[in-house]
Design a protein that fits this description.
The chain has 234 residues and is mostly helical. It has helices at 11-18, 26-47, 51-77, 85-93, 96-115, 118-124, 130-163, 168-187, 199-222. Helix content is 73%, strand content 0%. It is globular.
Length: 234
């Protein structure tokens, strides 16, 4: 996998590219990501007879894998020579998506273990086995990271559209990246069926996706061409 410059990658890309002695294509990295997590979900689901958790876990693995692919496509589109360095640094080098992930993950785990254990008990049972909890937490972190990345990508896109102007080809490419961000958010609605009995989590998820769509739509609308200065009259 060819490596972009430091400060111009998602944390996800940095981790994949940092494994010493291994040079994976993006497609192979995505396939391995899916197979590794899905195998663990199936193995623990079978061993502990938690088949309801297998369904939810499989959906989560699919969402995170699709999210990884969308993150790579978004990054590809905004690494062009005509894209302002300030925008690329704002999106990637700040690692704000990780900060958002920490907040989302901490809030979700606090809710699941301290306020309402019904969801985790429906998935893992009342006596949650340690290996299953371990895998559950890793997958939840992965999901929260995709949520944080979708939100930050939309906010960074809006900032870019307000601060800069672009020619036709570059503007079209950035709008496609914004549409990838919108799709990135929409994919996360796959969790809705598992949250029908959790109105707070359901509301937060739908609210998050709506916010991503609204902010991304503004980024697309405000992505403008350069100003044309009238030729001075002689």
């Amino acid at each position: 996998m060819s490596q972009p410059e430091y400060g111009e990658t998602w944390v996800y890309e940095g981790i994949v590219g940092a494994v010493p002695g291994i040079d994976l294509t993006q497609r192979v990295a995505l396939v391995l990501q899916f197979l590794l997590f899905e195998s663990a979900v199936l193995l623990l689901g079978w061993y502990y007879n938690r088949w309801s958790a297998v369904v939810a876990g499989t959906v989560a693995v699919i969402v995170t894998t699709v999210g990884s692919a969308q993150m790579v496509r978004i990054a590809r589109r905004i690494r062009g020579e005509r894209i302002p360095v300030s925008y690329r640094k704002f999106l990637f080098a700040s690692n704000i998506e990780v900060v958002l992930t920490v907040f989302a993950f901490s809030a979700l785990i606090t809710y699941l273990f301290a306020f309402d254990r019904s969801l985790i008990e429906s998935l893992l049972g009342t006596d949650q086995p340690a290996p299953a909890v371990y895998l559950f937490l890793i997958i939840i972190w992965d999901v929260c990271y995709r949520i944080g990345a979708a939100w930050w990508s939309s906010v960074a896109g809006l900032w870019r559209s307000v601060q800069h102007r672009f020619d036709g080809e570059t503007r079209q490419n950035l709008r496609r990246a914004d549409m990838e961000t919108a799709a990135f958010g929409l994919v996360q609605l796959a969790f809705v069926p598992f949250l029908l009995d959790e109105p707070l989590l359901l509301g937060l998820l739908v609210g998050h996706v709506c916010a991503v769509l609204i902010v991304t739509a503004l980024a697309i609308v405000l992505c403008r061409p350069p100003e044309r200065h009238p030729t001075a009259s002689l």
